[in-house]
Write the C-alpha cells for this entry.
Amino acid sequence: MTKYLPLGGDGMKSVRIAILGFGNVGQGVWKVLTTNKEEVTRRSGYEIEVAKILVRDINKTRDIDVPKDILTTDPEEIFDDNSIKIVVELMGGLNPAKDYMLKAIEKGKHVVTANKLVIATEGTQLFRAANKQKVMLCYEASVAGGIPVIHGLNESLTANKIEKVIGIINGTTNYILTKMTREGMDFREALKLAQEKGFAEADPTSDVEGYDAVYKLSILSSLAFGTNVSVDSIYREGITNIEPIDIQYAGEFGYTIKLLAIVKDENNSLEVRVHPAMVPSTHPIANVNDSFNAIFIKGNAVGDLVFIGRGAGDLPTGSAVVGDIISILRSNLDLSNGANTKMKQEQIEIKDMDETECEYYIRISAKDAPGVLGEVTSIFGKNNVSLSSVIQKGEYTEYVPVVYITHKTLERNIRKSIDAISKLPSIKKVNNIIRVEKF
Amino acid sequence: MTKYLPLGGDGMKSVRIAILGFGNVGQGVWKVLTTNKEEVTRRSGYEIEVAKILVRDINKTRDIDVPKDILTTDPEEIFDDNSIKIVVELMGGLNPAKDYMLKAIEKGKHVVTANKLVIATEGTQLFRAANKQKVMLCYEASVAGGIPVIHGLNESLTANKIEKVIGIINGTTNYILTKMTREGMDFREALKLAQEKGFAEADPTSDVEGYDAVYKLSILSSLAFGTNVSVDSIYREGITNIEPIDIQYAGEFGYTIKLLAIVKDENNSLEVRVHPAMVPSTHPIANVNDSFNAIFIKGNAVGDLVFIGRGAGDLPTGSAVVGDIISILRSNLDLSNGANTKMKQEQIEIKDMDETECEYYIRISAKDAPGVLGEVTSIFGKNNVSLSSVIQKGEYTEYVPVVYITHKTLERNIRKSIDAISKLPSIKKVNNIIRVEKF
C-alpha cells in the first residue's frame, strides 16, 4: 500500500474517494464535505476529492449542484480505479450494497458505510475481509446517526468492561411516543402525524415493530461485548400496543414510556432485547423527545454515560460519515496494526428471554366483583411474582382496569401468571404488559 | 522511532509505560489496567506493563498492592529508559509536571495527562514540542473526567464547524447547586455538605469561584475552534452569590440554575465565559444533577449533541487515561502524520464581555412605594433593555424583592442600567444578576 499520497497545493496531501448512492444521506455527505471543507482539510491533513459518485440515473434532476462528469452508473469504474482510496457506501439495502463493499475491500480500498442492515447481518464476513486486506471498515453512521456512539465504544471507552447499553435508537417511535405522551394522541394519530412530517415511512413496520432498533442493537452489542450478537437472537416487541391509558398510568407511577434497545451483561451471559419500557421520568433519557436518540452506557470504570443527539437526517448522518473518512485519513491510510475492533475468541451466551429479570407493569380488565382481585393476586403469588403497587380506579362499568407493578421477577414467572390470569372467567382481557427499566 | 515493538507471549506485542504520581487518579489508572487487563489487551493489541511509577515516598502505606521495585523517586530513571514508550503524568499542579512532560516528549515518549492546569496554560509549548518529536500528547482526562468530550471534538465531530459548546464541567458546584435546588439549602450549608462528602476541598475557591471551569473551558474552546483561547481571556463568575430565593424564582420561571462554561462562535468572534446561568428546566442538561458533568455541543452538521457522565473520581478519570493509552497503541505508536490537532493559522478574536448578548434575570430590593418601579423601568428603557417578565411579590416590609427577566440584550446595556438603578434612593440593593441561557 502506498503510504504517502500525492501532494495537493500548499504541500497538502490529497485523496480521491467515491460515493455509492446519492440519495438523502449521499447528498448530506456532499454538503458536509463542501460546506466544511476548511475544517475537514485542516483536521484530516488531506484535501478530499470526490472522484466518482455511483447513481442510477445520471440525468435525474437533483437539488444539489454536482459536476456531471463525476456521476457514473458503472460501479466497476470505481473498483478499477486505483487512485480511489476510500469508498463510501450509502445505497442502503442488503444487495448490491454488500457485494460492492466486499469488492471495494478486496481492491484494497477503505470502506465507510451507513448501512445497518449489512453491518448487522453480514458484518462478520466484511470485517474478516477488511482485516485480511488491512483496510478499515467504518460504520459510525449505521447507529444513532450523528451521535458518536460507535466511536465512543470503539475508541474512547476501550478501557472499560461494558456492563450495559440502553438506547433510544429509533427516532420514528420516539417521535410517536412523544406525541402520545405530551399531546395525548393515540398510536394511529401519532403515526399519521409522523408520516406527514416525514419521520415515518408509508409502511412503518420496520420502525414501529422494532426491527430497525434490532439491527442497530445487534451492531452495538457486538461492539460493546466483542462477540457476534446475531439479529435473530434479539427479543423484539414494537410499540403498536401502547395505548394512551398506559401512558397515563406510567405518568402516575413516575415513569415515561420509551422504546428501548437493551443489552446487559448478566454474569457472562447477555440479555439482548428491544421493547417498550417504562423509565423513571427523572432520568435524562426520559426527557429525550421527538426524533432525538439517546444512548446510555455503563462501563465498569467510567460509570454511567449518556449520549443524546440526532439519530437521522442528511447532515447528522453526513457528520458521522465524514468523521469516519477523517479518521481513516488521520491514520494516514495505513492500518498495519488492524484498526477494526478485535472480537473475543469465545462466543458469549445469549440468555433465553424466559430467564431475563425485570419489573413489570400489567394492565388487566377485571369484573368489578368481590373476590376477583384475590384470585389474581393468588396466581401471582403461586408463580413467585411479588407486587409493589396496585391501582384500581372505580368506574361504574362491568369491567374495570386494574394495574399492577411487580417487583423484579423472571419473565418466565410473568408468562405463567399471565397465562393463568387470562383464563380466569372474571378477567375480560390482559390488556398490556410493559417492562419497567431502571438504570 | 521503532515501529514494531518486542512481542510478548502469544505473539502479542508488549509495551512499557511509566506513571508520574500515584495519588487518587494514579491508583485509578492502575486499577483499570489490572481489572480490565483482558479488554485493554484485546482492544489495544498490546500487553501493557507499568515499568515505573514516580512517587514521593516509596515506603508510604498504600491501599493498593503495587510491587515495590517499580516505585521510584527519581524521574530521570524514567526519562532515560528507552524501553518506556508512554509517560502518564498524574501529579497535578504546574511544576514540575510541565517540565517532566516536556522532558518525556523530548526523549521521544508519548505523553498522557489529566492535568488541566498545564494543558490550559502551557499547552501551546507542549503541543509544539510533541509535533516536533512526532509523539502524541493526549489529555482526555483533563476535562470532564470520564466523558469522552476531547475524543468527541478531536475525532468524532471533526466533520463539523462547531458553533457552540456549553458545559457543566465542575462537579463540586453542580453538587452544591443540586442540594440548593432540591433540598432548599443555602450556599454555606451545601458547601459544608460537599466538603464532608469529599466533593469539595477545604479551600473551595478554585471550584466555587469558577477557576477550575475556566481552565477546562480554555481547553475545550481551543480544541473546538482550533485557536488558542487563553485562560485570561475568559470571563469568570462563581456561584457564591446564588441565594435560595434566586433558585425559587428560577423555578417559577421554568428554569434551573447551573454553573455553565460557554463558548460560542458569533460571526467569527468567540464569546467565552463561565458563570451561573438559568437553563430551561426541560432541557436534558437541567436534569444533570449531583456531581455529574454534561457537555452540550452544537455542530453545523451534527446539530445538537449532549454528553453526560462522571466528571471526576479515580475510575472515571482512569477510564479516560487508559483510553488515551489505548489510542496511542492502536496507532501502533507511529504518528508520522501528526496525531495532535492542527490549529488554524489565524487567531480568532475573543469578544469583549460588554459586547456579548444574553437574556438576564435581575433581582432588586425596592422600596414598596408608588413610582419606584416606574423609575426602574424607565432606566431599562433608556438603555435599550426590553423586559419580558416582572414579578413583585407583596410582602409587608419596607423593601420588597422585584425580579425582572429581560429580552436578549447587550451586557453593556445591562451594566449601564444596573449602575443607574443602584444609585436610585428608592433601591436598597441590586441583589443579583443571573444570565439566562437558551440552547
